[in-house]
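can u do me a favor
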């Protein structure tokens, strides 16, 4: 018998005679791609006109049926760990140095290819794209300064995103009067939904007594 994987080519070559007539429309010694397991017969005829028939079983093993689970998603924000987990085989080999089912952090968008080997030894490849969206690049302006005297209004204005959420109950670009020195944190969200945190220190100097 001959055992191959689906999609592989095979040569059936009979020898010992002058002419050969194969079933299945194949030619002696010529490559063909059987789609399923089958038995092929050849009638070999020598120069005397005598003939004999022989058979050959070709077993076609299926390729693995691959599914890929991407966690948390195939589109993520920069610095987000991603898990690519292929299923449907016995062993898995990914490009890019990643391990099946193990988290990694992609730095840029890219396509990863997995080679899956089934229990029958047949292999199949499949690709998975991961899109990495950039985080907002935040800048913060402080008016009048990050060091002020007590009772001085301060305006903190973050830029680089579409929405801004500050700690301390302050509003982006709106004046407030800090009562003491402190650190304020802004969460900026970009158009792609990715967020970045950034802090701003304010030093409040007491008035002379």
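np, heres the sequence
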């Amino acid at each position: 018998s001959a055992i191959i994987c689906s999609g592989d080519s095979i040569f059936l070559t009979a020898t010992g005679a002058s002419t050969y007539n194969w079933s299945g429309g194949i030619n002696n010694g010529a490559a063909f791609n059987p789609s399923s397991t089958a038995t092929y017969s050849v009638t070999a005829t020598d120069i005397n006109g005598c003939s004999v028939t022989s058979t050959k079983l070709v077993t076609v093993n299926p390729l693995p049926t691959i599914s890929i689970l991407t966690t948390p998603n195939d589109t993520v924000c920069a610095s987000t760990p991603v898990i690519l987990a292929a299923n449907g085989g016995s062993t898995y080999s990914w490009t890019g140095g990643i391990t099946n089912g193990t988290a990694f952090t992609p730095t840029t968008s890219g396509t990863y290819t997995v080679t899956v080997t089934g229990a029958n030894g047949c292999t199949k490849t499949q690709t998975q794209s991961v899109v990495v969206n950039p985080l907002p690049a935040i800048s913060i302006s402080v008016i009048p300064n990050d060091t002020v005297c007590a009772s001085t209004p301060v305006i903190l204005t973050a830029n680089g995103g579409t929405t801004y959420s500050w700690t301390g109950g302050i509003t982006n670009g709106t004046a407030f009067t800090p009562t003491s020195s402190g650190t304020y944190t802004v969460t900026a969200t970009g158009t792609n939904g990715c967020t970045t945190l950034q802090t701003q220190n304010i030093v409040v100097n007491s008035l002379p007594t």
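The radius of gyration is 35 Å. hope that helps!!
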